[in-house]
Write a structure and sequence with these properties.
The structure holds two protein chains of two kinds.
Chain A lengths: L16 H15 L2 E4 L17 E3 L14 H14 L4 H4 E7 L2 E6 L4 H10 L7 E2 L3 E4 L8 E9 L4 E9 L5 E3 L8 H12 L2 E3 L29 E3 L2 E3 L10
Parallel strand pairs in A: 4-8, 9-10
Antiparallel strand pairs in A: 1-2, 3-4, 5-7, 6-7, 7-8, 11-12
Chain B lengths: L2 H4 L10 H11 L7 E6 L11 E7 L2 E8 L7 H5 L7 H5 L7 H16 L7 H29 L3 H22 L8 E2 L2 E2 L7 H23 L3 H7 L7 H6 L5 H4 L7 H4 L20 H28 L20 E4 L2 E4 L1 H10 L1 H12 L7 E9 L2 E9 L7 E5 L1 H6 L2 H5 L4 H11 L3 H5 L1
Antiparallel strand pairs in B: 1-2, 2-3, 4-5, 6-7, 8-9, 9-10
């Protein structure tokens, strides 16, 4: 390849945009929290590789610019129209649109979740009739948006999929319940409450579903260890694995 | 709870109903109504595992039904976050233990999409995946129908179902080394190619299965007792299914031909010829007919798989992606003491190449890194849409792996199917959902 074909900073293609985008991407990267330092996990002078000062930052979450490709532009436009008719703005309801690996994710603000889901379900040209549950994810380093709830939606009519994602702070983990729009979310929301401690406002009976009713804590959060618990029998107790006696 | 709040408690041990009723009459507990709260399970032969149902009965009529789950919760999703991406297969295969191959495939499709290697999976690996999935569909449906019969008192159906399932399990044992929890499908392909003699055994299987399925049909299809117990029982129509997220045979029994193998094909399903059986009765009998017809379609797919596998010799077409940074380094071979690492591979890494040894060691202990992001991959399991939501933070372990198990979702629909019906029909409703509690509780 000759240098003429390379779209350099002074080249014809995007000559004005490119530096800005690069600077912006670099700034976004530097703003991310550090995920790991050093190369081999050594904290003292044992690391002589010269990589001791390495700081690996988390990958910034990109926002996909338009056009999104595939049917995703359609979905976004129709959703914007539907919200408009309810007197709501798309940009206000949807924080961020991410198209990645052929899948569309709409990051929805929690206050707008029910209206967004309602439009997605009821608009005939969208017709996402089915919700495939709620999957909680805990990102402890994302200050102010630690807990995420992910809703995969499916349209049987149009054979399409879209994913809604809502993030809430750990200090106020409340998300409006989608049971009124998708009754199938009942047990799935109970599961997300059980494992992540996300409170679904308006759920008919938000109780634990997998863990015992008197369980302390929410086991699938990242700050909950994968520790053993004592095995309880009637009248006897076997300590958790790490506390049992062992032979050397 | 205090005794006043709970009311008088009667312990029913079986065959003592008259005594219980007499005792209740004596205590004045039956003021004209026969409302009873009955606890069914969690240990009950008809509940497909440890499922607990709390029934409120008015006479023989169920007025309220509350399923209680969680008795088989094993923390598989949490455990997977502490193992490498490849080791995740070993965990998730144990969720829905009657359909292990589907759990593995959903997970591996998710990992492959995260890695961006979906297109690099070799055609032979895809054929083997389809072959295993369809065999597994047959074994799962046979268990569903067999236990369905047993729960209605037809032990022959159960024995026939288990006998036929055994044939599938024998094939699994030959091809993967294990009868259940195979760990056969791996990110990037499958663990090993067909062993010698497998194609002949598969053809033999294809020859004997149709008449055996015919025997099952002869027992049940027109059996007046069976029809009496299942027709118009556990009714759930299309709108109810969609609202409650119900997929699979239950949805297809309402007349909607929704099958992910057709609508959103994966593993090359678009290149096979098969039909999507439907019924329009929306009841337990329709679900049974759908399952029977699906086994016939699965046999068709297996036949096409066998033809494709026979047409090409395996060395030409690997079963694992070519990328050595992802493909598990071990090459398996049958030794004197059974299946294990191939001696040639051991000789290579231990005696010839330091780099190969380092590579093997790093990949096996540390695993491969997966670019950050999230995906949702779904397959059509015997019970419905089995989805895997996998999140990576760029590391060598899943940051989060969540499974949308159809059994979990479908049990929610049980009150809609059984409330207002007779208590005996609750059993039929549970059996027609075909829940596997290992998948429900994960």
């Amino acid at each position: 390849m000759t240098s003429q074909q390379l779209p350099g900073p002074g080249g014809e293609q995007g000559g004005e945009q490119l530096p800005d985008r690069a600077v912006q991407a670099g700034e976004e990267r530097l703003a991310e929290p550090v995920a790991r330092t050093g190369m081999f996990g050594a904290l003292d002078t044992g690391d002589t590789s010269g990589y001791g000062g390495l700081r690996v930052r988390r990958v910034p979450v990109p926002s996909t610019p338009r056009p999104y490709g595939s049917y995703f532009d359609d979905v976004a436009d129709l959703l914007a129209d539907g919200l408009q008719r309810q007197g709501k703005a798309f940009d206000e309801a949807v924080e961020r649109v991410i198209v990645e690996r052929g899948e569309l994710t709409l990051h929805v603000k929690r206050d707008y979740l029910i209206s967004v889901a309602g439009v997605l379900r009821d608009e005939p040209s969208l017709a996402f009739e089915m919700c495939l549950g709620v999957s909680g994810v805990h990102y402890p380093w994302e200050t102010g948006r630690e807990l995420h709830a992910v809703y995969p939606l499916l349209s049987i009519t149009h054979n399409r999929r879209v994913r809604l994602e809502v993030s809430v702070p750990d200090a106020d983990p409340r998300i409006p319940s989608l049971v009124s729009v998708y009754p199938t979310c009942d047990w799935h929301e109970r599961e997300a409450w059980d494992f992540f401690g996300i409170v679904f406002d308006g759920h008919p009976a938000l109780t634990r579903i997998e863990m015992p009713d008197d369980w302390k804590g929410h086991p699938q959060r990242k700050d909950y260890p994968l520790g053993g618990i004592p095995v309880e029998y009637r009248g006897a107790q076997v300590p958790p694995p790490e506390e049992r006696r062992h032979y050397e | 709870m205090t005794a006043e709040a709970e009311g008088r408690v009667y312990t029913v041990g079986g065959q003592d109903w008259d005594e219980v009723v007499a005792a209740a009459d004596e205590a004045g507990d039956r003021p004209g109504t026969e409302r009873l709260v009955v606890n069914m399970g969690p240990q009950h032969p008809s509940t497909h595992g440890v499922l607990r149902l709390i029934l409120t009965l008015d006479g023989e009529t169920v007025t309220e039904l509350r399923p209680v789950i969680g008795y088989l919760h094993t923390g598989i999703e949490k455990n997977m976050e502490f193992r490498t991406w490849t080791q995740g297969v070993t965990f998730c295969t144990r969720m829905d233990y009657l359909a292990p191959i589907f759990n593995e495939t959903a997970y591996c499709l998710a990992v492959e999409r995260l890695l961006g290697i979906e297109q690099d999976v070799s055609p032979r690996a895809n054929v083997l995946r389809v072959l295993m999935m369809e065999l597994n569909r047959i074994s799962s449906h046979l268990t569903a129908i067999g236990t369905f019969g047993l729960e209605l008192g037809a032990t022959t159906v159960f024995l026939y179902g288990m006998r036929e399932r055994e044939k599938v399990l024998d094939l699994f044992e030959l091809m993967t080394g294990l009868r259940m929890n195979h760990g056969y499908i791996r990110p990037g392909g499958v663990s090993q190619d067909l062993p010698p003699g497998a194609l002949e055994r598969l053809r033999e299987f294809l020859g004997v299965m149709p008449p055996l399925l015919g025997e099952l049909r002869a027992l049940l299809d027109a059996n007046p007792l069976y029809i009496g117990r299942t027709r118009n029982i556990a009714y759930l129509d299309l709108a109810g299914c969609v609202e409650l997220g119900v997929t699979g045979p239950i949805l297809r029994a309402t007349g909607l031909p929704w099958d992910l193998r057709k609508s959103q094909p994966y593993c090359g399903y678009e290149s096979y010829e098969f039909g999507v059986p439907t019924e329009d009765s929306s009841d337990a009998y329709g679900r049974y007919l759908v399952r029977m017809a699906e086994m016939d379609e699965s046999l068709k797919i297996i036949e096409q798989c066998v033809d494709r596998l026979a047409s090409k010799r395996s060395p030409d077409d690997p079963v694992m992606v070519a990328d050595r940074k992802i493909g598990w380094p071990a090459r398996l071979a049958v030794g004197a003491d059974g299946l294990g690492n191939s001696p040639a591979h051991i000789a290579h890494i231990m005696g010839q190449s330091m780099e190969a040894l380092i590579h093997h060691f790093k990949l096996v202990t540390e695993g491969f890194s997966v670019p950050p992001g999230q995906v949702y991959a779904a397959v059509e399991s015997p019970r419905g849409e089995l989805g895997c939501h996998a999140v990576s933070d760029g590391g060598t372990r899943p940051y989060r792996a969540h499974f949308r198990d159809p059994s979990f979702t479908h049990l929610q629909a049980l009150p809609a199917m059984a409330e207002g019906g007779m208590v005996a029909d609750v059993i039929v409703a549970v059996a027609s959902i075909d829940p596997v509690l290992g998948g429900v509780d994960r």
